[in-house]
Design goal:
Bound molecules: pyridoxal-5'-phosphate
Number of helices: 16
Distance between the termini: 35 Å
Shape: globular
Number of strands: 13
Structural class: alpha/beta
Largest sheet: 7 strands, mixed
Length: 416
């Protein structure tokens, strides 16, 4: 069979470039070596990425070096923000951002309950209390009406999560937060490259947290970043990632100084130049990655239109979707099959389906420490029972896409 050794065929990008063979030196698999399952998300690494990492290994700086600064400049520019602070992972980005925004003990942070747990956990890290907002029933982003009901005297920060890659209703959230005098920030770990009314998110929200985990849009292995137009805010994040020390090693070297001051307690949340080199190389391909994600989403949309028992999440035309996840809602009662059954059948056919996410307030840590439970966010709880994530990532071949489509069509058109 033509194409990469571990894939099922070449990837045809919209611009006619064949991903696996179009780059000069690379043939990398679209799935984990030796596995037959099409994963829901996966990194797309090529020989030029390998070369970029090798080059930095031969350079003078493995950490706190110029590649980190270049990566910060490139990502923040891409997101429409003037400043960036690279950190060890997306969770560290959230922790640093909440700290820099002045969130602390006694404060409440309103987060949507449908998100990765880190959005809420970072509030605990700074001694604050997460408060779980319900979501829009159709697109599952944070519901501004729910936020409005939850804002109280202790509310310090509202965090939007661009669920699946589709930005939140930032006009409504922004107006509400301004009116009530609370901060608004974004967990945009799903949304590198997303837009709102044609503008990059860095122009829309005061500060964003990003992740470069391999399932996200670009991979650094582990990695994250805070981006913002607020220089002081980003500087506060940079100090927090470096133990609370106000200068880093390179700055002291350049200034010929040995002394430093730890002005507050921070962490070692630095990203290495090795990671940043991979990220910079990956970022050059972001537009192509996004185009391939859009292409796969459009193929799914077309194939699933008219299929009974399945409904993709609602799209908001003014919000430029980055397609981190392709999430569908399935009427399991109508289908006469449980999610567990369908999940196992699809996994058995090599389709790496997943579920994003169990509402955070239903995790036992939050049940036991905050007393959360069923009934707190009824829209999210009902939606959760219907959710299924299908594979979408730029390394998927057209044959992979067709494999997913056929499996869903077979399972959903045959009742019982
Ligand atoms: C991935 C992710 C995070 C955490 O990022 P890491 O890099 O894995 O720490 C936080 N929030 C959301 C919504 C995410 O998807």
């Amino acid at each position: 069979m033509a194409g990469p050794r571990f894939g099922r065929g070449p990837v045809a990008f919209g611009d006619g470039v064949d991903y696996h063979t179009g780059f000069a030196r690379g043939t990398f698999p679209s799935r984990t070596r030796g596995e037959t399952v099409i994963p829901y998300g996966r990194q797309c690494i090529d020989e030029d990425d390998v070369a970029a990492v090798a080059a930095v290994l031969r350079s003078d700086w493995l950490t706190t070096g110029p590649t980190v600064a270049a990566f910060e400049a490139a990502v923040s520019a891409r997101m429409g923000a003037a400043f960036g602070c690279a950190v060890a992972n997306g969770t560290a980005a959230l922790h640093s951002l909440y700290h820099a925004l002045g969130v602390g003990p006694g404060d409440e942070v309103i987060v949507p309950t449908i998100t990765f747990a880190a959005t809420a956990n970072a509030a605990l890290y700074v001694g604050a209390t997460p408060v779980f907002a319900d979501v829009d029933p159709d697109d599952l982003t944070i519901d501004p009406a729910s936020v409005e009901r939850l804002i109280g005297p202790k509310t310090k920060l509202v965090v939007g999560v661009d669920y699946a890659g589709q930005p939140c209703d930032y006009d409504a959230l922004g107006a509400l937060c301004r009116e009530r005098g609370v901060e608004l920030a974004a967990d945009s770990c799903h949304a590198l490259g997303a837009t709102y009314k044609g503008r990059p998110l860095g122009e829309v929200v005061r500060a964003l947290a990003l992740s470069f985990h391999p399932v996200k849009h670009i991979a650094t292995g582990e990695g994250g970043m805070i981006v913002s137009n607020d220089e002081a805010l980003v500087k506060a994040c940079a100090i927090f990632r470096n133990h609370g020390v106000t200068t880093d090693f390179r700055q002291r070297e350049q200034a010929g100084l040995w002394s430093y001051d730890m002005a507050g307690l921070g962490y070692n949340y630095r990203l290495s130049d090795i990671h940043a080199a991979l990220g910079l190389s990956q970022l050059k391909k972001l537009d192509r990655f996004l185009a391939r994600r859009r292409e796969i989403a459009a193929a799914f949309d077309a194939a699933f239109a008219g299929l009974p028992f399945l409904k993709p999440l609602a799209r908001r035309p003014e919000r430029g979707h980055a397609w981190h996840l392709y999430v569908v809602r399935i009427d399991f009662a109508g289908l006469g099959k449980s999610r567990r059954e369908l999940f196992q059948e699809l996994r058995g056919e090599g389709i790496g389906v997943n579920v994003h996410y169990l509402p955070t307030h239903l995790h036992s840590h939050y049940r036991t420490t905050l007393g959360t439970g069923e009934g707190l966010c009824p829209v999210a709880e009902a939606a959760y029972e219907t959710l299924l994530t299908l594979p979408i990532h730029p390394g998927m071949t057209d044959v992979d896409v067709q494999t997913v489509v056929s499996a869903l069509q077979n399972r959903l058109s045959r009742v019982g």
